[in-house]
Amino acid sequence: MLRVVLSNLRKYKLTFIGCGGIICVSGFKSWSNRNVESINTSNPHINYWRKQSEKVIDVNSVPSRKKQLFELQRRCRSSTEHYSSVVALPDEIEASDVKPEYDVLVIGGGATGTGIALDAVTRGLSVALVEGNDFASGTSSRSTKLIHGGVRYLENAITKLDVDAYKLVKEAILERRHLINLTPHLSFALPIIIPVYDEYFLRGCFSLVKHYIGLKIYEAMAGRDGLLCPTYYLSSPHARQLFPHLKQPDLCGTIVYFDGLHNDSRMCLNIALTAANYGANVANYVKVVDFIKENNPSVDDYAQQKIIGVRLRDSLTGNEWNTFAKVVVNATGCSVDRVRALDNSKLTHSDDLIKPSRGTHIVLPASFSSQNYGMLIPKTKDGRVAFLLPFEGVTVAGTTDVPIEHEQIPYDERVQLIEPKQDEVEMIIDELNQYLDVPVSQSDVDAVWSGIRPLSVIPSDYVHKVIHGTNPINYIQQPENNPASATTTASTTNTSNGRSTAEISRHHLIELSNSGLVTICGGKWTTYRAMAEDVVDVVRELHPEIGRRSTDCVTKVVKLIGSADWTHSVTAILERHQIPAETAEHLSKNYGDKSFIVGNLFLSKWSKLLAGGYPYCMAEVVYASEHEMAQTPIDVLSRRTRLAQLNKAAAEYALPMVINIMGEVHDWNVRKRVAHYHDSMEFLRTMHVKDRHKWGRSRHTLNYARRVVETVLNGPSMTDEAIQFVIDRFWDYYNANNAEADAGSNSSTGNSHNDGDVDAEQDNKKFHQQSRQLFEGCISRAQCLSLAYEFSNVFGDDRVIDALMFTGQQQLGLYEILVSCAACASHRELFESNYY
Asked: Based on the domain organization, do 339 and 415 belong to the same domain?
């Protein structure tokens, strides 16, 4: 009998194989076409918000920052008497104006924080959000710009049978669909090619098949509704047409798959503005100074006392006040552990919830990538993947994953001053040159930026559970007594000990402290909405009174500002009104249905471009200042427009014009203009690249210098003699720095034969190191002070010393010095010692 069966199997083996193949393909196709996640259309709250999202949001209905601050100052506890016993009311707030405390106050204006504010306010809760810097000033504006599930994580899920990695990819793919649907003008599907190289063609074909199968699984996880476009094979000649710079030798073929691309900082801004439109009070440049805790005599430990509010400070004016809330959420990204330490000073680095990692990106001209295709480098030297992506008319390449210490993260208002490292730039260039036949060099780089990833890790002395999806029960809680004696369920696979940051999971986790502070950390841009949903679900679970007054999450159907009435025809409409095609397309993609407002400004008197070669115009500066809470020039240059991240030199060129326009809108005096110019140049220096864009010293002419100064100050400059004096003395100091640094470098390479030579060598090395700490095109604070003394001796006004020094920066460039000297010459009264 067995012999007959085996004989039939051999006889009909091709038939069996064919039938099995058909069944597998049919089953896979059926699995791919399943509806992974459906939205409950019978839910009245879902239907209500779906209809609300179809209405065009009037930008004038979004309260200004001034009104938001007024509302923040009005919030107390349930009675005025209790409020008055805690702190006096601000002068501008009457007792009759006081309102009850907020349900939820969110600290942090990044993607997660703004997402929590939007989620909570659309559930019917009273919400406030404060951000110590600008919205998206940290990691949320420095991402790779991808909305993706994570191809690398899927590989781990398959090869290592990692269920958690599979859940992470699945959650991110579902969220990718929501982001693209809710903000179609800011996000879209992007085809990405994966080139496969191998000197042996058959082995390369096997790699192609492996990548194809993996990406088909990646595609199928999205289901029918979440599918962007099918994955397909692209031959080497066709790939070369899309990427002319792609190396041809040993190229076996490419696989093309689809992920999302978005404008990250504008996405975050629109989330905040949408939350504000629906009733949340959101304000940038408002810093949390301290927590206000309930004075409970029965609780001796400060860390155990319940948080009832926060002490806030307006970073722009220095005003302070108290704001109260039932729940405070810490969503500060890479600063979550600092906020936790503010709540509990006993916490140490061993209790940290995040392991920070620096990711660096470089910006190249558009010619290095295809206009409509991205490229994924499947494996870098450090085991990561790298991307080459088209973004806003340029090419973005990266990223790195370098562990850093908490001490290396800039504090609060300086969080945006994250300086990229030269070795990371070289690492990215080396990886690109393995795939491109036109070598990338340092001179091709137009801008560099770095962001800090707040990767979540689990302290070994905490009882915890990690959230993998939207599960409101799973959060971690601090042990009530001695942490060292607490029982732990921590798995060694969830800690960072002995692991690189590239291996740390991108899951998010939520902690509840004994004082009631809710902290969210980890995750990534793509999953911000799911993270926000988890946080608000946890708040509802922990506070039944809030849970009874709120609804289930509805943010899957809440469109962001600018999306309701946007279609692809907006570009054509703008063009028909005499707006240039490139500018029209740019306005449509960045402002959605609000591009008509910006277009009206463009057609009135704000049509001039900020810098040649880029579509950003003066109208955007006016719109950002009036309707998008832009308070500083860098808010406009880096986060409302993206000019600073696309080209450092272009942003420096546009800076005087931006200050001039914002100065008119915000009524800045000369001293304020000088301060903003200094701060902005300090920021732009962190986007450091080689100074080739300035065309050497030939650019620093008398006429150019006068134009910069007069544009910044919106008034007359100094005399030609004074301008030329500053230029000449600056270059004397600058050249002296270079000469001494080179001399120190040369002498340090020689051999030492006695103690004196050893000491001299050490001094030279120290001096050389200090000289190289200066950014290109800058002189030190001490040299600036010497220059100011020389200027005051020649031109007879020692107040120029204060004009140069009052911003406190440790190094200054030529134009900061010129602007300061000219400001003092034209407005001496603002630099008197009693001005303070």
From this structure: no
Q: Give the chain's count of helices (H) and strands (E).
A: 30, 21
Give the pLDDT score at 153: 79
Residue 22 included in any domain = no
Among 1-5, 15-19, 86-90, 551-555, the range of highest mean pLDDT: 551-555
Tell me whether residue 18 is in a domain. no
Residue 677 has pLDDT above 90, yes or no: yes
Reported as a pLDDT band with limits 50, 70 and 90, residue 149 is confident
Contact present, 194 and 378 (Cβ < 8 Å): yes
Contacts 24+ apart (CB under 8 A), 546-551: 546/103, 546/104, 546/125, 546/326, 546/327, 549/103, 549/124, 549/125, 550/120, 550/123, 550/124, 550/125, 551/45, 551/123, 551/124
What single string gives the DSSP state of each residue in 518-545? EEEEE--GGGHHHHHHHHHHHHHHH-HH
Q: Does residue 198 share a domain with residue 324?
A: no
- For residues 332 and 403, membership in a common domain is answered with no
Amino acid at 286: V
The whole-angstrom separation of Cα 273 and Cα 275 is 5
- Final residue of a domain: which of 454, 470, 496? 454
Query: Do 509 and 521 form a contact (C-beta atoms < 8 A)?
Result: yes
Which of 220-234, 427-441, 738-752, 762-776 reaches the highest mean pLDDT?
427-441
Joined together, the tokens standing for residue 819 give 């602007």
Beta bridge partners of 307: 293
The answer to whether 363 touches 356, Cβ cutoff 8 Å, is: no
Map residue 511 onto helix, strand or coil. strand
In a domain, 33, yes or no: no
- How far apart (Å, rounded) are the C-alpha atoms in residues 801 and 723? 16
Give the burial class of 599: count Cβ atoms within 10 A of its Cβ; 0-12 exposed, 13-18 middle, 19 or more buried. buried
- Same domain (yes/no): 132, 162: no
Tokens for 25? 């393909």
> Rounded to an integer, what distance in angstroms lies between the CA atom of residue 234 and that of residue 230?
13
Residue 124 sits in a domain of what CATH number? 3.50.50.60
DSSP secondary structure letter of residue 407: G
Asked which of 269-273, 275-279, 331-335, 716-720 is least confident by mean pLDDT, the reply is 716-720
> Same structural domain for residues 155 and 298?
no
- Whether 524 contacts 506, CB under 8 Å: yes
Cα(96)–Cα(80) distance, integer angstroms: 9
CB neighbourhood size of 565 (10 A): 15
CATH number of the structural domain spanning residue 177: 3.30.9.10
Radius of gyration of the chain (CA): 29
Residues 220 and 271 in one domain: no
In the predicted model, what is the mean pLDDT of the chain? 82
Q: To which residue do tokens 């992470």 refer?
A: 168
In degrees and rounded to multiples of 5, residue 253 shows phi and psi of 155, 180
**Buried-state track 107-145, b at ≥16 Cβ within 10 A, e below 16:** bbbbbbbbbbbbbbbbbebbbbbbbbbbbbbbbbbbbbb
Indicate the pLDDT class of residue 419, thresholds 50, 70 and 90: confident
Total tally of structural domains belonging to the chain: 3
d(CA 836, CA 831): 9
Does the N-terminal peptide bond of residue 399 adopt cis geometry, omega within 30 degrees of 0? Answer: yes
Classify residue 778: in a domain, yes or no.
yes
The range of the structural domain enclosing residue 659 comes to 622-644+655-835
Residues 134 and 282 in one domain: yes
Residue 427 reports pLDDT greater than 70: yes
76: Cβ contacts below 8 Å, ≥ 6 apart:
82, 83, 98, 99, 100, 101, 322, 324
Q: Which residue has the tokens 């000990």?
A: 497
| Same structural domain, 275 and 345 | yes
Q: Pick 775 or 722 by higher pLDDT.
A: 722
pLDDT value at position 382? 73
Which residue, 404, 425, 454, sits at the end of a domain? 454
Could you give the count of Cα atoms lying within 13 Å of 257 in the half-sphere of its Cβ? 22
Q: What is the DSSP string of 313-362?
A: EETTT--EEEEEEEEEEE--GGGHHHHHHHH-TT--GGG-SEEEEEEEEE
